[in-house]
Specification:
The protein contains 14 helices and 13 strands. The protein has 369 residues and is of the alpha+beta class. A hairpin with a 4-residue loop joins β8 and β9.
Amino acid sequence: MAAMNDMEKKLAEYKCDTNEAVCLKLVRFPEDIEDESTTFHPEYSHQLYGDDEVAFGYKGLQIQLYYSAGNLSTLFKVKYTARVTDKFDCVEPDDVEGKIREIIPAGFCCNTDDFISLLEKEANFKPFGSLLHTYKVHNVEAGEDLTYQIHKVDVLCPGFREYHERLQTFLMWFIETASFIDVDDDRWDFFLVFEKYNKDGETLYATVGYMTVYNYYVYPDKTRPRVSQMLILPPFQGEGHGAQLLETVHRYYCTSAKVQDITAEDPSENYVKLRDFVLVKLCLTLPSFSSEKLSEGFSEEMASEAREKLKINKKNQRELTKMRKCLRPEELASHISQMDTRLQHEELEKSYQDVLAEYRRVLERLAQA
């Protein structure tokens, strides 16, 4: 038994948290490769390494996935300080490298010098598609306003398909239930965010984030754009790019008479909060939401104009929607019927307070915008 405990302790030393082991970078300059401050890590790694997000068989494991900032040319290396051997009764280490190879497209580098040579070609990279919106964000560290662009892209744009294959690998690390999409379906729209920056006197572009939207058919001649995936890469999060992207996408679809309304596929809580802010901001541009009209309270005119001009679809009760996802129909009916009046009032009060808190948050953000 003592020998078994010793063996278990020894094996435990060869377990690594894959969220810490996976090291991601967006590289602009060769010196970024060795600069630890430019490294960021996944929020999730369970889709590759299991629910416990642990890799066995290594000490000091580092799975390096470094991307050039614009074109996302990829450097992939696996490092470790020790690895299990035959002395552990033929215990095999996990195939951490094979898991990565399942999601990254061919053509990546395994050699740093080869990657640096690709980095030198970044000046040739230009954003795909058509420019929809340009905006600036003040960067405290740089002490200046930085310029960003949002582009709409068609999958037939030369080079985009290969670029998108590299870009979508980030989904696995930052969206809990992410999956890759079939880009051969021409109903997909792609929206990309880029930062303009200077390097040795040249203007270059860095990838900031993106959104995919699927256009569903609505009888007889309409479409219903549904936001499928949205990701702002971690180095750029918290700077307002998500709001800029979502607002730009809404404005783009609102100009089309063929669009019935705009929806989202299984939206996260963070997405719902962002959408609420953006939609309130857009509503304030409508005549029915003028300060004079707002002082008179909410009206059917407001709801009608928002639906017509901003393509806002009717929202279901969030809590009921959540229960529908988790419970079978008979369980849901039973749950609702068994809720006594007191409990219903408690649930209603909680929902009411949650809504008030969300309203306050949106109003505070609008005041700062």
